[in-house]
Amino acid sequence: MKDFLTAARLLLLDLASTLFFLVVYLLTHNTILAVGLGVALGLAQIGTQFIRRRPIHAMEWLSLVLIIAAGIATLLTHDPRFVLFKPSVIYAIVGGVMCKPGWLNRYLPDIARTTVPDVATIVGFAWAGLMFLSAAVNAFVALTCDVATWALVMPVFGIVSKVVVFLLGFSAIRLTAGRRIRAMPAAEREALLNSTGWRDHSQPQARSA
């Protein structure tokens, strides 16, 4: 699940400028300062990628464009909620990408891709649903509540909901894969374990036991 966790980290980085704007705004109540520093962070993230010669993903460009556009709208209207809508756009786009069947397979080990591709597809749709739900909840809270309430509700909802879906999805994949592997004929099971490298992976544990 290393690649999957990396993808989650990138999503958090894409939202960093919004969270930074929020912290500065709550501490200073200075809209111009908060917007300026939020945009500066977005530019710094892109600039760092250029300096390190790392590929800049489309989501990172989108994040920068959104924080600049939301910042301008905030300065013109003096309404910080424009910046708070940015995560909804990010969530909706990510949810759309996750609607593609089988997107989760690339983040799974070979043995899981072989034994539970159907379960992985369902878990992938669950993640897409969570992204759309997060987009809707964020938009609702940003529209109906003040900034302080958004700062309290959205981080808690975001962390708890993603942890729950991750644990449920991981458990469903792991338990179903284990049950299906145990139900296989011995020869088929051994061939699967050997072909996916799972036998080699599990041998050190067996020796240490």
Record the SSE blueprint:
Blueprint: H1 2-14, H2 16-28, H3 31-51, H4 58-77, H5 81-84, H6 86-98, H7 110-115, H8 117-144, H9 147-183, H10 186-195, H11 198-208
Write up what this structure looks like:
The longest helix has 37 residues. Helices cover 84% and strands 0% of the residues. Helix 3 runs antiparallel to helix 4, helix 6 packs antiparallel against helix 8 and helix 8 runs antiparallel to helix 9. The two termini are 25 Å apart. The protein contains eleven helices and no strands. It is mostly helical and 209 residues long.
Pick out its properties:
209 residues, 11 helices, elongated, single chain, mainly alpha
In brief:
The chain has 209 residues and is mainly alpha-helical. It is 84% helix and 0% strand. The protein contains eleven helices and no strands.
Give me the secondary-structure category: mainly alpha
Q: For the report, how would you describe the main beta sheet?
A: none
Radius of gyration: 21 Å
Order of helices and strands: HHHHHHHHHHH
Unreliable residue runs: 200-209
Ends apart, CA distance between termini: 25 Å
Instruction: Count up the helices.
Output: 11
Give the beta-strand count.
Answer: 0
Strand content: under 5%
What multimeric state do the chains show?
Answer: single chain
Determine the fraction of residues in helical runs and give it as a percent range: over 70%
What is the average per-residue confidence, as pLDDT, rounded to a whole number? 80
Shape: elongated
